[in-house]
Structures are given as C-alpha cells and as structure tokens.
C-alpha cells in the first residue's frame, strides 16, 4: 500500500508538471527581472570630493532600472525571440524533478496520513496534516534538488545574451556540466531554500486540499466528484502560492547565480540574497512573479489533484475487478 501512494503521486505530479511548465518558465523569468548590476545603486565613495570642487568631478547618473513587464508580455517575448518550443525549455528537468521530488513527497505524505488518521472518524487533525506535509516536503526537496537547480538554469538561460548562455542540451547534460565545472556541491546549491520552500508548499498545499475537501463533504456542499476536487485544489494552490513566493524568488536567484573562478559569488547565501534584493528593489520584490506563480500554482494544483483522484479511482477499480 505504501508503494501505491508513490506511484499515484508520481504519475499525477509528472502530468501536472509538464502541462504547466510554460507558466513555470515565465514565473522564473519574471523573478529574475531587475537582477544584475542595474538593480544595485552605485555607492558614492566616502572621500569623494564635491562636484563643485576645482576638478569638477561629475559622476554619471545610475542607469534606470529596466521596465517590469507582465507574464503575457514575457511569454510573447520568449516566443518572438526563440520560438514557441522555448516555452518548454528545461521540461526534461521538470520530469526528473517531479519524479524525484514530488513522487517522494506525495508518497511520504500518503504513508503519514494513513498512520495518523483517526480510525474512528477517518479524519486527520489539521495540525497533523501540516506536520506530515512539512516532513514529506523537506525529504522530497533534498532528494530532488539537483533536478531543481538544473530546471531553474535551463529555464533562465534564454534571458541571457547568446555569448553568456550555458546551452545545456538536457537535464543530464546540465547536471554533468555543473558537476564538472562547479563541483558536486553545486547540485545542492540553494538546497536549504529548496527544502524550506518545499516544506511550505507541501504543508500548505496537501493539508489545505485535504482540509477543504473534508469540509465540503462534511457540510454536504458538493458530492465527492470533479467539482469538489477542483474547488479544494484551487484553494490549496492559492494558499501554497502566498506562503511560498518569497522563498521561491530567493531560491531562483541563488540557484541561477553564475559563480566564476577567482571572483566572489553575487550572493553569499540566502539571507544575503534576500537583503540585497530588498535593498535594491524593495520588499515587494519578494513577490515578483506572483501572478504567474498563482497562474501556474492554481492550474498545477488542480491538474495534480484531479489526476491523482482519477489515478486512485483507476487503480482501485483495477484491484476490485
């Protein structure tokens, strides 16, 4: 029975991940808007002479930040520059990520749910659902981090000038190049952020879905069918997006940073990245890409749970026949 939960969760996650991949790619591109030299205001030297001095030193004004564009504009730009197929850049990494990360978290959550469910009421308290989600999400993220790093880099590659692109051919090529050029530890770059985000997403997503579904059925608002599954899953997607977006922005930037030999990395860690982002772009920068995040998280969660319920029904029917 334990293995069945992994299979069901894995199938549903891969279907949901592939079908919403273009939205995820747009979200990553939007989260990286404003990053770079233009996002950090140059500091005036402490001993600089005033402009009215004899030398009349004139410092050039800092360049204005690039205009922020919405998800539709980002999508159109990607298609115009690289073609429609570019919307699926890094989809091989998505498949591997869902196979490792989501299969693990869904399977572990299912095991904990069965162990912690009250046999008399057939329900599990919300606090236990949240704890089960935190545990399952953390373990799943640690397993799937290499694929997550590869996916972020492959999705972000198209925003760079042609000379600076990494040009990974596939997720296998991305992982092998990272290992060769940056060491094995690069595969777990940003892993603390990935684990934190996964714990937040899994706890909010799975716990919210189960809780809302139970509430709908208990109050008799709808029957256990497609309407209930869609309502509960969209609510879960919104909760997960609100909870995870700030961590997701920092995770994306840390994973995507280019570390060159002999030079200090752009960010020394997650906290440094958060502080630099807020200082240069304001606190709301942590919610960059929220529209595509909810636009992706909503459909992803709906497809995930609707597919999961159908796969469960299919496997249950095959067992009884």
Automatic annotation (TrEMBL):
Subcellular location: Mitochondrion inner membrane
Residues spanning the membrane: none
Main location: mitochondrion
Solcar repeats: 4-115, 124-215, 224-314
Keyword tags: Membrane, Mitochondrion, Repeat, Stress response, Transmembrane, Transmembrane helix, Transport
Cellular component terms per the entry's GO annotation: mitochondrial inner membrane
One example GO MF annotation: dicarboxylic acid transmembrane transporter activity
GO biological process: mitochondrial transport
InterPro entries tied to this protein: MCP, MCP_dom_sf, MCP_transmembrane, Mito_Metabolite_Transporter
Domain of life: Eukaryota
Bilayer disposition of the protein: Multi-pass membrane protein
Keyword Transport on entry: yes
Membership in a protein family: Belongs to the mitochondrial carrier (TC 2.A.29) family.
Protein name: Mitochondrial uncoupling protein 5
């Amino acid at each position: 029975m334990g293995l069945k939960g992994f299979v069901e969760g894995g199938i549903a996650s891969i279907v949901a991940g592939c079908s919403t991949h273009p939205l995820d790619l747009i979200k990553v591109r939007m989260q990286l808007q404003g990053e770079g030299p233009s996002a950090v205001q140059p500091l005036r030297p402490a001993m600089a002479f005033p402009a009215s001095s004899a030398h009349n030193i004139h410092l050039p004004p800092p360049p204005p930040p690039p205009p922020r564009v919405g998800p539709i504009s980002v999508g159109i730009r990607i298609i115009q520059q690289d073609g429609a197929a570019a919307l699926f850049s890094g989809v091989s990494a998505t498949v591997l990520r869902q196979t490792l990360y989501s299969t693990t978290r869904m399977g572990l959550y299912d095991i904990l749910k069965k162990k912690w469910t009250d046999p008399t009421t057939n329900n599990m308290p919300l606090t236990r659902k949240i704890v089960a989600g935190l545990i399952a999400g953390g373990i799943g993220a640690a397993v799937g981090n290499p694929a997550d790093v590869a996916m972020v880099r492959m999705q972000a590659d198209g925003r760079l000038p042609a000379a600076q692109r990494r040009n990974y051919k596939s997720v296998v090529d991305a992982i092998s190049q990272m290992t060769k050029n940056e060491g094995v530890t690069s595969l777990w770059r940003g892993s603390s952020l990935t684990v934190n985000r996964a714990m937040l997403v899994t706890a909010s997503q799975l716990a919210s879905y189960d809780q809302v579904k139970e509430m709908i059925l208990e109050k008799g608002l709808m029957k256990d069918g497609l309407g209930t599954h869609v309502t509960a899953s969209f609510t879960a997607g919104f909760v997960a997006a609100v909870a995870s977006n700030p961590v997701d922005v920092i995770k994306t930037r840390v994973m995507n940073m280019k570390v060159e030999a002999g030079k200090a990395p752009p960010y020394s860690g997650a906290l440094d990245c958060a502080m630099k982002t807020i200082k240069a772009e304001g606190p709301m920068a942590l919610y960059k890409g929220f529209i595509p995040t909810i636009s992706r998280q909503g459909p992803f969660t709906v497809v995930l749970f609707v597919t999961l319920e159908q796969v469960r029904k299919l496997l249950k029917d095959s067992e009884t026949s």
